[in-house]
Amino acid sequence: MRQTSLRAHNLALVLRLVAASPTPISRARIAGASGLTRATVSTIVDELIAGGLVDFADESRTGVGRPSVGVTLAGTRPAGLGMEVNVDYLATCVIDLAGQVRHREVVLSDQRGRSPAAAWEALAAPAARALAAAAAQGLVVHSGAVALPGLIEDAVVHVAPNLGWHRVALPARIGDLLVDFGNEANLAAFGELHACELSSFLYVSGEIGIGAGIVVNSELFRGTRGWAGELGHVTVDPAGKPCRCGSRGCLEQYAGEDAIREAASLPDAAELVDRAKAGDEATLASLGRAGLALGVALSSTVNLLDLPAVVLGGHFAPLAEWLCPPIEAELRQRVLTARWSSPLIRPSVLGAEATVIGAARTVTQAIINDPARYLASIRP
Amino acid sequence: MRQTSLRAHNLALVLRLVAASPTPISRARIAGASGLTRATVSTIVDELIAGGLVDFADESRTGVGRPSVGVTLAGTRPAGLGMEVNVDYLATCVIDLAGQVRHREVVLSDQRGRSPAAAWEALAAPAARALAAAAAQGLVVHSGAVALPGLIEDAVVHVAPNLGWHRVALPARIGDLLVDFGNEANLAAFGELHACELSSFLYVSGEIGIGAGIVVNSELFRGTRGWAGELGHVTVDPAGKPCRCGSRGCLEQYAGEDAIREAASLPDAAELVDRAKAGDEATLASLGRAGLALGVALSSTVNLLDLPAVVLGGHFAPLAEWLCPPIEAELRQRVLTARWSSPLIRPSVLGAEATVIGAARTVTQAIINDPARYLASIRP
Questions:
Q1: Once rounded to an integer, what is the mean pLDDT over residues B30-51?
Q2: At B345, which helix (H) or strand (E)?
Q3: In CATH terms, are B2-73 and B196-348 the same topology?
Q4: What is the mean pLDDT of residues A240-262?
Q5: Which residues of chain A have a CB within 8 Å of the CB of B189?
Q6: Where are the domains of chain B?
Q7: Does the keyword field hold Transport (chains A, B) (predicted)?
Q8: Architecture of domain B196-348
Q9: Which residues in B lie closer than 8 A to residue A341 (C-beta atoms)?
């Protein structure tokens, strides 16, 4: 038992060092950083190579002396499948252990009024295509993670207001694949955390609904039950427009995708960027109003959470040019610390794909966190 | 070196078990829970007794068999001095290691327009009286902690809007006593955490200003720089009343002590409870408006932070009877999770003293966390 857990510990320790290194890392440096002997490191690296988790890479020359062979995360075998069920689309993506996106697909399809069972059924086909695409590249998808725009606890969606779901039990599999579920904004924040250089930020996920993921010192802040970050239901006008959630004046009613599109009198939100670029007055007014509402809600959030940066994701990312000025004006006025420490506002690095990439990344990250468990699971 | 740190570890381990036990705990049970030998436990307990940190107490009979002598935190020697500089009063208190309040004093005195230096000078006399009162009871005050209604970092107050302080360097001592500084709402939340049975809650500190302390799983959430919890500057009406912070429509302008008093046309906030009990219409209307504003701001906070409970502290505690109904109505309407998990709202257990008790408690808790360091500091 002790022997087993020591091996598990050492596998995880070595793999973590490989994953944290931006360039291939030599076994000698792994030994130095881990305190393990070079012989132990070599044995463990061999085991990780046999399991398809790491590879030898080009020699890493970082100083004087004899060049040595470096070890890097393998992009050749284990992979994760990310899926997203959102209000007006389904998305899938496959990422390998090295974090590269190896397959992606978005299916535009309105989920409002559809039953959860119909949504799983609709997801089965793109999921199967993703598995086939992974297999064609020699990848083996270990498991899947599905992002939902709702509050989830113990395999139950309590509520996903914009899907119209209430108390929905979640399946253990999509097709034949084992799947986990998570909140879309939290998963997007997780994806962004691994793609950008910030370690503390509020990730704002703009879709039909608006959610947020709170990252403090590289950790997701989930609240006591995992329901933190419901930015879309922060009140910006107590007597304002009614919201699907039953409240009034929620941020979503001013800055959600439908709200911006309707105020701009556009039939399709995809036209927003072009219309804004063309200087269409109704579009610019709608974006100004959305930016002001976002600025009010984000100021309250920064006052409560003390976060140094806000990342605009989802449909907010391509609209950042027009949203940032009114957001920044509100932050300057309303954030108590703005005078000496103004929060940075910027668009997401991953854009609309942050959620589905973040979902896939939870699968590969779980393998990196506990390689012994993964290796046991693939043993024939 | 190893020997020294092992001793420090064992001292802390034993003292933590004693502190966590609601009744006196026997050395045999300490040995069982810590994995230390009974001989080691006896040596460590003797050392803790010599340092005045624990005492033997009445026999603890918790089962069949021979009764054994229990160990409990000592209330006889080390103590902490808590101090508070707030807008219209100064407060001090002494607590012993067992958590008992051994001295308390509140001096009503308006600090607005006073210089920080004048505030330290004004604090020196009640601090000296507290030290004398402690000495008269055989207690030795180890150090002090001062609560301020502002944003503090590295011994500088960036801003304390209601004191009118900006970029104030903090002194290392008040009189001859070494002191630390902290945000008043955070310290009040820390005090309340040790006095109530909740482990996750938002502590709302109502004074002239309004602050909050965020407690998640028995830990204070401080944000990235310790500035989290600025509930008083959450916007409840974007176009509302101007606030001292430079913004508009901040919660403070509707539910701060001055705001409630002025809207009730009272010269003194101390009359609020009596007027409300007497059914005075202007007072009830003002409390209703404050409750509504609190309900809006707290709903946004719960949506963002996923906290299961809100504790009303400071001047809100005695007003809870009138504030709770409108707060609860807003939470029911505005909190996304309220339909299946409604947040608990209740007044603070410690009331107006939470802040100064919490400040004093940081001193005694630091001793409990690192007894070896304390014992080294008192060695003659």
A1: 95
A2: strand B344-347
A3: no
A4: 95
A5: none
A6: 2-73, 78-189+355-378, 196-348
A7: no
A8: 2-Layer Sandwich (3.30)
A9: 225
Cα A176 → chain centroid:
24
Nearest CA in chain A to B246: A333
- For residue B125, give how far its alpha carbon lies from the nearest alpha carbon of chain A (Å): 33
Contact B148, B171 (CB under 8 A): no
Judged on CB neighbours under 10 Å (0-12, 13-18, 19+), A277 is exposed
d(Cα A356, Cα A358) in Å, to the nearest integer?
5
With left for phi above 0 and alpha for psi between -120 and 50, is residue B8 left, alpha or beta?
alpha
pLDDT digits (tens, 9 = 90+) for B203-221: 999 988 999 999 999 999 9
Contacts of B219 (CB under 8 A, 6+ apart): none
B145 and B80 Cβ atoms separated by less than 8 Å = yes
Cα–Cα distance, A15 to A51 (Å, whole number): 12
What fold, for A197-348?
A: Nucleotidyltransferase; domain 5 (3.30.420)
* CB-CB contact of A361 with A191 (8 Å): yes
With beta carbons under 8 A apart, name residues in chain B contacting A217. 224
Q: Which amino acid is at A30?
A: I
Q: Tell me: domain A2-73, CATH 1.10.10.10, correct?
A: yes
Q: Which helix (H) or strand (E) holds B298?
A: helix B281-305
As a whole number of angstroms, the distance between CA B40 and CA A32 comes to 36
**Residue owning tokens 């802390």:** B12
Provide the 10 A C-beta neighbour count for residue B368. Answer: 19
Torsion B350-B355-B359-B365 (CA) sign: positive
CATH number assigned to the domain covering A78-189+355-378 = 3.30.420.40
CA distance B280 to A42: 81
> What does the pLDDT look like over A277-327, one tens digit per residue?
999 999 999 999 999 999 999 999 999 999 999 999 999 999 999 999 999
Q: Of A244, A235, A224, A302, which Cα lies nearest the Cα of B295?
A: A235
What mean pLDDT is reported for chain B?
93
**Selection from A57, A49, A78 nearest residue A137 by Cα:** A78
**Closest CB from A151, A222, A339 relative to B337:** A151
Position with higher pLDDT, B250 vs B154: B250
Token pair belonging to A108: 């535009």
